[in-house]
Design a protein that fits this description.
The structure holds two protein chains of two kinds. By secondary structure, chain A is α/β, with parallel strands linked by helices. Chain A is built from nine helices and 19 strands. The radius of gyration of chain A is 21 Å and the shape is globular. The mean pLDDT of chain A is 94. In chain B, 37% of the residues lie in helices and 30% in strands. In chain B, strands 6-9-10-3-11-12 form a six-stranded mixed beta sheet, sandwiched between helices. Classes of the chains: A alpha/beta, B alpha/beta. The interface between A and B is medium-sized, with 23 and 30 residues.
Chain lengths: 434, 252
């Protein structure tokens, strides 16, 4: 069930010609995904995964494919500086790799990090599995156009048994161009068996100019490997950002994801996690805090496919003004995934009568001996707590901010470093609704 | 010098009249005990004075240091020196006790046009008060009242009072639910804070607290009014005869 396949958005995205890569399988995959995008267009709200995020307004807009001057935009490095953290860094401006802003010298032993555009010039075969994928679900329109158009992104590998001590930074900057831009990036991230990595992914930008960005990541965490992945989404106010993360976890792999969804006008993140190895453990912690007229939609789909796998998701949503937050947490414990433990909690605060939060926990269990706990709440700030703070002299606005920050802070626990904890906490504080 | 002058105060909660013409004058340096049976309006008085929502004043006035107290927001009352020790202190997970207290102290200082305290200055102040109040600094590192025992919560209220140094402290059944050791500690804290510039309004159901904090005046609140006032001997009389006689005497 789709909207008419053709719309100004679909037409404008198809205006961009396919750039030949010189790699036959890649060109074929791009072509097929492009054809699927052209014939199916965008999903409408009858597609379950898009029920609460209507694309009607977006479908009427037009975006230009390439920013000819993306290599020349002046960018203030302060916008993505992380206090106390200095490590390898890849920076993209409007979807284009910027070597001048990146830090790729003296990479630690065991880390391979380069832009996709460069990786494709070498041996592209290791990327074939990820990049030749066909997206078949009706809700996967943006993954299709991403697969067709993305020519750059991040290719990161950590060799078996290697622990990378300094966090690796990935930075995506949206900055005003001559026209309203669409850009697409594609990432392939692999931690081989026993590898360890902390990854800090930042989305920043400036200005009100409209942009559409699609970002698709394939992340594989090998046997016994450990990934800490922190995503700070603080895009410019005009950004429409559609992200998708395909996470695959092998036996005894551990992944801890922290996501702060703060910026953008329309933001959608799909996390599709597959726990395919015995004893794999996934933790997700996130805050989405839309204000003004922002719409922020997070969709978790976690599949337990092996025995004794664990997932623990702890999320907070705060919506103010006329903003809307959407959270879907779908957990499937597949047949045979006995002894699995699946927890999900999503607590939300509505700070204005015109704000809306739609939260939908879903749990399907087909295995035995499974522990599962599921919960979602939507509420308001506690009047008794507000009065307690005010009775001590704290003005109403400050009291509200203090309680909202406290509400969110629980999900910042188990961040890998105090510097990061402080940075995220400060970032949250600067976004608290007045 | 008159600090607080309550005249003919009438107040409603959820449409029900609770205070029915209460009058009371408190001077700087005095300790007043307000006693009375359950449902007399004791806690309502504390809540009206501190500005809690849901309490509608229908008649009368409250003048505090020359200003109309009822016209002020709760935070402005706090900045003006009014402090309510809660009967049921609220747990606030995720907000550190020290952070909270510093935010409160600085908000009050800011409202009064005073210079805010930096973290070093504040820590010094807090350490002094901890020592005076004989409270372990372990309390500081926890979230506000979270997981505190009943006694710890009440001691934390008194500790906050010590740090915020109010002019008018209202203690709403601070003695309730305390064992004798905790009661003594709380009383000792209050006694330490007694001063010629500060007044206390101690709302209590039992005479017990008054053995340790000796009041200058005792008032009996019944059916929304002060029906009898006297010195500390009145509290002993109440202990002996109960509230029944007084309430019926008032009605007569």
């Amino acid at each position: 069930m789709n909207q008419p396949a053709s719309s100004p958005l679909v037409e404008s995205l198809l205006d961009a010609p396919l750039a030949p890569s010189g790699i036959a399988w890649l060109d074929a995959a791009r072509h097929e995904n492009r054809t699927a995008f052209a014939s199916h267009g965008l999903p409408d709200t009858r597609v379950e995964a898009w029920k609460y995020t209507a694309l009607r307004a977006l479908a009427q807009r037009r975006f230009i494919a390439a920013d000819e001057s993306a290599s020349n935009h002046v960018v203030d490095a302060e916008t993505f500086a992380l206090p106390g953290i200095a490590g390898p860094r890849l920076v993209f401006v409007n979807g284009v790799f910027r070597g001048d802003l990146s830090a790729l010298e003296n990479l630690p032993d065991g880390l391979s990090l380069q832009p996709l555009s460069q990786a494709l010039q070498g041996d592209a075969e290791p990327l074939r599995f990820s990049l030749s994928r066909h997206y078949r679900e009706p809700g996967e329109a943006f993954a299709r156009i991403n697969a067709a158009q993305a020519c750059d992104g991040v290719v990161l590998r950590v060799a078996a048994g290697k622990s990378i001590s300094a966090p690796v930074q990935l930075v995506f900057i949206g900055t005003a161009a001559e026209a309203e831009l669409a850009w697409h990036v594609r990432h392939v991230i692999e931690l081989a068996d026993g590898a360890e990595l902390t990854l800090v992914e930042q989305h920043v930008g400036s200005g009100e100019q409209s942009q559409l960005a699609t970002l698709v990541s394939d992340v594989v965490v090998g046997e016994g490997a450990k990934l800490n992945h922190i995503v700070l989404q603080n895009s410019a106010t005009g950004m429409t950002q559609i992200r998708r993360t395909n996470l695959r976890m092998q036996a005894r792999a551990e992944a801890t994801l922290h996501l702060l969804e703060l910026g953008g006008s329309l933001v959608r993140h799909d996390l599709q996690a597959e726990l395919v190895g015995d004893g794999a453990t996934l933790r997700t912690r996130g805050v989405f805090m839309p204000h003004g007229r922002q719409h922020i939609d997070t969709q978790l789909a976690i599949r337990h496919q092996a025995i004794n796998t664990t997932s623990d998701s702890n999320w907070r949503g705060v919506a103010s003004d006329r903003a809307r937050g959407v959270f879907r947490g779908a957990i499937v414990v597949a047949p045979g995934a006995d002894g699995s433990d699946a927890k999900l909690s999503d607590k939300n605060l509505l700070l204005s009568p015109s704000a809306e939060i739609d939260t939908k926990p879903e749990l399907e269990i087909y295995a035995d001996e499974v522990l599962a706990a599921h919960g979602a709440t939507v509420g308001q700030l506690d009047e008794r707590s507000l009065f307690y703070l005010r009775s001590r002299g704290i003005p109403l606005g400050e009291a509200r901010a203090l309680l909202t920050a406290a509400f969110c802070r629980a999900v910042l626990d188990d961040l890998p470093s105090a510097d990061l904890r402080e940075h995220l906490s400060n970032l949250l504080n600067t976004h608290l609704p007045a | 010098m008159t600090m607080l002058k309550i005249e003919n105060l009438h107040a409603r909660v959820e449409g029900k009249e609770i205070l029915k013409g209460l009058s009371l004058t408190v001077n700087a340096g005095e300790v007043h005990a307000i006693m009375g049976p359950n449902g007399a309006g004791k806690s309502t008085l504390g809540n009206v004075l501190s500005g809690r929502d849901g309490y509608e004043v229908t008649a009368g006035s409250v003048i505090y240091n020359g200003v109309d107290l009822l016209a002020l927001d709760p935070e402005a009352r706090a900045a003006a020196g009014v402090f309510l020790a809660f009967q049921y202190p609220v747990e606030i997970p995720g907000v550190n006790n020290t952070y909270f207290l510093r935010a409160a102290a600085n908000a009050q200082r800011k409202a009064r046009g005073e210079k805010e305290l930096d973290s070093m200055q504040f820590l010094k102040l807090v350490r002094e008060k901890l020592k005076v109040m004989q409270i372990s600094d372990e309390l500081l590192h926890r979230a506000v009242n979270e997981g505190f025992s009943g006694g710890e919560k009440k001691r934390n209220e008194i500790f906050q009072m010590a740090v915020l140094e109010p002019q008018l402290a209202i203690l709403d059944e601070t003695d309730s639910g305390l064992d004798i050791d905790a009661l003594k500690q709380v009383a000792q804290g209050v006694n330490t804070l007694r001063s010629p510039d500060r007044a206390f309004l101690m709302i209590t159901h039992y005479q017990r607290l008054l053995d340790y904090v000796v009041p200058d005046f005792v008032h009996v609140l019944a059916d929304g009014r002060i029906v009898e006032s006297g010195d500390k001997s009145l509290a002993l009389k109440l202990e002996e005869h109960g509230y029944a006689d007084l309430a019926s005497g008032a009605a007569a």
